[in-house]
Amino acid sequence: MVKSPSIINIALIGGGTFCKDFLTKSAFEYRHEIDAKIIAVADPNPNAPGMIMARKIGLTTETDYHRFYSPEYDLQLLILMTPETAILEDVLATKPGNIRLLSFQTFEILWTAISIEEKKLRDRTKEIETIIDGIRDFILVLTPDMKVVEVNQAFLQKTGYSRKNVIGKKCFQIYHKIDHPCDESEMHCPLKDVIRNKHQIRQIQTRMMPNNEKRYYEVNIYPIWEKNGEISKFIHISKDITEHKQEEAEITRRLEAMVDDRTRQLKETHEKLLHQDKMASLGKLAASVVHEINNPIAGILNLILLMKRIMEEGFTPKDAGRFQDYLTLMETETRRTSRIVSNLLTFSRQSKMELKKVDINKLVEKTLFLNSNLLKIDNATIDTRLDPDLPKIIGSEDQILQVFMNIISNATEAIEAMGGGHLHVETLHSLKDNTVKTIFTDTGSGIPRENLTKLFEPFFTTKKKGKGVGLGLSVAYGIIQEHGGNIYVESSKGKGTSFTIELPIESKFTQQI
Asked: What mean pLDDT value characterizes the chain?
């Protein structure tokens, strides 16, 4: 068997207009799609349109087609481009048997059919091009070696490139103005992601335009597969989202401004609530310490009257010792009164948060001292278990004192409701959490289960009208949160309540002092 040549050599007989049209299309449009090669054209008239076109594209021309029978041409096919019957009969009679012949009529039928399909394809291609050019997204068609083979008008108009400056160039030359593929360590390549992952991808990219303007794009890359599983092309679609990004940035800026404004308002409201609750606590405390102050003052007054009476009756040397004792008692009671008043003044001042190292044990003792008379009036007994090695925390002594005052005040009211009871205060250092814990446990009336979740809500109260406005625990909660701590409550109706306050030893305030 004779092996067929891989490429069929073809010669055309007849160099008229039909020949010229065929050469134009076959030479420029189909030469890469068919395994055939037109090598020569013959016509008696060397100036016929087909002959001129043949010479233009580098084909051999002959005025006598019989020359094609020579073995030097190595022809496999002759195509008649003229309808003359005489030429058809002569070729049939004279051609060698190894050269085949395609008559004009047959070729015309085939060429007409091809032309019709070609027109349909051209119309369809034009329609698709119109649609693609009408899309405002950027569309590029890339080969696996990153060469641009097609581009739509939107890309050209937006970037300012001309078609000739894009087609045939590599994508990195167009987008990044470099002459080598993108370095993965510096610039992420979405095409390589598609090849690695074998599916389309979507990502946001930043690009510099020819005028050095920075733009943001949403990029989608779709692979086109060959039958053998290889990627033949990439469809690269990118959408300019710069305005959207700018709108997002503006919305974010506005939201941040709103949050800052709202935070400022909440801070102002929180400070007002702090002061309001402090004044309520101060009023309650002042009423209770009146008795505490009145007792030493009454004692001092009695001692003064006694000393005056002794003086009136006649002062003797043995009265000097009694006077010394009286003066010592008066000094002790005066100092006690001074401490109570000083603590009340400190608590009542509305000042900015002053951060310092706070000794929680001393603060507990100070709070119990301020409330000692209130505890006596409400028939509350007290015991403490304070960790002697308790580390200091960083915070506002005044605000933490306010928290302790609120909790002890609520405990005494709960104990009073039961006709008396016990309050236990404990401090300890939690090594696990690196926190200082202060636990207040009373045997008062307790809190119903349904109220536990509402306990720290502003203005929530179960007290009778005039007894409270429901700010104490919500303010206490805010103070502890501001210090980076936590406050927990456990309670059962009729069985007492336990408040646990955790304050971190290391907090955001640590670097501020």
From this structure: 81
